[in-house]
Design goal:
alpha/beta; 3-stranded antiparallel sheet; 11 strands
Length: 354
């Protein structure tokens, strides 16, 4: 059964004709939400509902990624993609040390030691090997653009490539590298901003970014940022996207791995707004405006993933203690529209209402 109006069915048909790996009935893609919310069950639920699921490889080891792909394939016969983090540039050691000193009272209050602020590449090369061997249909990249030879390597394995961008210059780099698909992210998006040419906070709206990117390229676009309803999706589709990517809308589904504390903060509206902060990871990300996010935003250096590792013990300890003032509570600007419905219900409703 098709849940799409004729216009939306045409959009999906265009994606297929363009050779993009989105052979799904509904123009709705599940956002990769690394660090807990994304699970094989969520990816499979979205895929089985007619959308396009994504395995979030961020923070997983190569072996864990291999297991996540295998687990997802036991739950769905539908195709799905994998999202990889591009390695970032190392931060300034002195600035990181200064921030660690600022956070020491937080560590003492929670009775934990701060984490080691180490740089790593998130197992990038090993994960490339995994996705190539697993022959997933689509690999998307966040925090940067893969080199042309990496794109060609994946193409030789019959894998399409998507790159997450926030501006026309980033989109141009992705197009030049051979990307098959552009995931255009607006400031409304929850979680980390995907910027890689300009690491300052991105305040460009999704529709503005879509129009800018559509102007310079005819590579198919998936729109992401603040998509919670069919009306949101329709606006993005009418601005040139072939599909929309949703993340925040799925945070409180039964299939998501979102912690009870995180769910409670979202559903009970314990905080009155979202803010962009780099207090948790050294990269700007949007989440609920709890105490830690507000107090430490301007103190945190631009240093990802060092700051992520530094603050992780604080976030874990506070979550275990039920202290919602400390953990990162990523959420997009439309978070108040959250429901606890199954992922399939949400995906199908967004598509139908679009």
């Amino acid at each position: 059964m098709s849940y799409l109006p004729a216009r939306a069915r045409e959009v999906v048909g265009c994606a297929r004709l363009a050779g993009v790996g989105l052979p799904c009935e509904l123009p709705v893609v599940q956002a990769p939400m690394a660090g807990g919310p994304s699970t094989p069950a969520l990816t499979a639920a979205v895929a089985n509902a007619g959308g396009y699921g994504t395995v979030a490889a961020g923070y997983l080891t190569a072996d864990s990624l291999r297991e996540a792909i295998a687990a997802t394939r036991t739950m769905t016969a539908a195709p799905f993609g994998v999202n990889l983090f591009m390695p970032s540039v190392a931060g300034d050691a002195d600035e990181i040390a200064t921030y660690a000193a600022v956070l020491q009272p937080e560590a003492e209050r929670l009775a934990v030691a701060l984490g080691e602020p180490r740089w790593d590449d998130d197992g990038y090369d090993a994960k490339l090997d995994v996705v190539e061997t697993a022959r997933v249909p689509l690999v998307s990249f966040t925090f940067g653009c893969p080199a042309p030879d990496t794109v060609e390597r994946l193409h030789r394995a019959d894998i399409d490539v998507a790159v997450t961008v926030t501006s026309a210059p980033e989109a141009q780099l992705a197009v030049d590298a051979g990307a098959d698909l552009l995931v255009v992210q607006g400031t409304e998006a929850g979680g980390h901003q995907a910027c890689f040419l300009d690491l300052s906070a991105n305040h460009r709206s999704l529709l503005s970014a879509l129009a800018e990117v559509r102007e310079m390229s005819d590579v198919p676009i998936v729109a992401t940022g603040g998509i919670m309803t069919g009306r949101d999706a329709a606006a993005a589709l009418n601005t040139g996207a072939i599909a929309v990517q949703v993340g925040t809308a799925l945070l409180c589904t039964p299939e998501a791995g979102t912690s009870p504390l995180y769910r409670q903060a979202l559903l009970e509206a314990r905080y009155d707004r979202t803010i962009l902060t780099r207090a948790y990871s050294g990269r700007f990300a949007r989440g609920l405006a709890n105490r830690f996010a507000i107090e430490h935003d301007r103190q945190a250096p631009q240093a990802y993933p060092e700051v992520h590792h530094l603050t992780r013990p604080l976030r874990v300890a506070a979550t275990r203690a039920g202290d919602g003032s400390v953990p990162n509570l990523w959420a997009g600007t439309g978070w108040r529209a959250l429901t606890t419905e199954p992922a399939a219900t949400i995906v199908q409703r967004i598509a139908a209402d679009a």
